[in-house]
Fold this sequence. Notes:
Elements: H1 30-47, E1 60-64, H2 71-76, E2 78-82, H3 83-90, E3 96-102, H4 104-107, H5 112-122, E4 133-137, H6 140-149, E5 153-155, H7 172-190, E6 194-198, E7 202-204, E8 218-224, E9 235-243, H8 247-258, H9 268-275, H10 279-284, E10 288-290, E11 296-298, E12 311-313, H11 320-338
Parallel strand pairs: 3-4, 3-6, 4-5, 8-10, 11-12
Antiparallel strand pairs: 1-2, 6-9, 7-12, 8-9
Helix pairs in contact: 5-11, 7-8
Amino acid sequence: MNSSSSSSSSPSSFLDLGSVIEQKEVKRNLFLFLGLAASCLLIYKTAYPLHQELDVDNLSSFRPLLDHTSSSSLQTRTRSISFREVLENASTENRTVIVTTLNQAWAEPNSLFDLFLESFHIGQGTQKLLQHVVVVCLDSKAFDRCSQLHPNCYYLETRGTDFSGEKRFATPDYLKMMWRRIELLTQVLEMGYNFIFTDADIMWLRNPFPRLYPDGDFQMACDRFFGDPNDSDNWVNGGFTYVKSNHRSIEFYKFWYKSRLDYPKLHDQDVFNKIKHKALVSEIGIQMRFFDTVYFGGFCQTSRDINLVCTMHANCCIGLEKKLHDLNLVLDDWRKYLSLSEQVKNTTWSAPMKCT
């Protein structure tokens, strides 16, 4: 959760938000239909009891029924559904989802999750993307808060580990949380879904899909970008990645996850840097691309142009309070920008301030 040459590639839009809803009228056999409906309801209640223990091995989840009841009622009226169903509900027509992770510390009122959602609401072309966001909650309290604010919340329980508190960079629990994330994203790919993974301390200011490269299996943001989107020696940041589901990406993610055993004290990003030049990665044949910080900026290297920026990440920043302070400055700058009638010629961000 912590940590121009891209413009030469022709932008490609990967998102088709259209959907087709087929409707059928039942004109005959009304009483027979009602009888069948009652039978189906009985079967449904048997298959999905309101209180069912999570089976982590089967990636089951708890999700609120979407009705107009109060938020407290939503938390109690739950049913067990699979992770696959959560992905299906959130997916675009071309099987792409946006995934983020959340724990209690980041889910508290006025914390990072609130800022994350707010950025989607005030960003350009981003509000329509919220329906495709899957929030993977790492503890029950994070799930309860998420369920009050967002429809696609998934509770991923990890027995024997408490992910609820703030996890400082590179601590043992932080490492477990990062590898749990890589494991889950591997499963997303295996189920045939492309994904954008985004940390919740990233503000979505513009729709990033037009800025994704059309020819890369695996595309990653950078702490520092040195001008070449094909150069794996850019200083990468795993907080924002776009990955296409295919045999190359699946094999790479499996190798990446397995490599944690070779580097037990390193987090996923450092292990990526260890393995990216290995012969096996070349044999897998995965195509890697790296994003220009003009479009995907952060506190390590802020975007040089607010007229082009898509996301801003609170990277190079340790500590929840520092992140909150400086991301609020980012959103303040964005609101001021939106109020202007002309483009900004010279971009000067108020952040980072405490994240220095």
